[in-house]
Write a structure and sequence with these properties.
The chain is an all-alpha fold. It has one domain. It is built from three helices and no strands. It has helices at 2-16, 39-49, 61-86. The protein is flat and about 45 Å long.
């Protein structure tokens, strides 16, 4: 989930050519996770996906296609893991 949020942030940074846009968590691409996650931290990290400003009118179709494909890829992984967890 953080990986997906990170790439939404980076695509916006690249499209706007704004070096001041930065991901608010340490680490890149695969942000560092705390040793113990609590409900408040999980809610804060989930909120990054909906962060205002990372969603806007995109100007570059290739970036849009790329980030959409990236999200679909990971959504498929999640569905597969859920199915495996249920036992098939």
């Amino acid at each position: 989930m953080l990986h997906t949020a990170y790439w939404k942030c980076m695509v916006r940074r690249r499209l706007l050519r704004d070096a001041d846009i930065a991901f608010p968590r340490p680490g890149t691409n695969w942000p560092h996770l705390p040793e113990q996650m609590d409900a408040r931290g999980w809610a804060r990290d989930r909120a990054l996906l909906g962060k205002r400003g990372w969603r806007s009118k995109w100007r570059n179709a290739q970036h849009i296609y790329g980030i959409a494909s990236h999200d679909l890829y990971h959504a498929g992984q999640i569905q597969l893991l859920k199915r495996l967890q249920r036992g098939g």
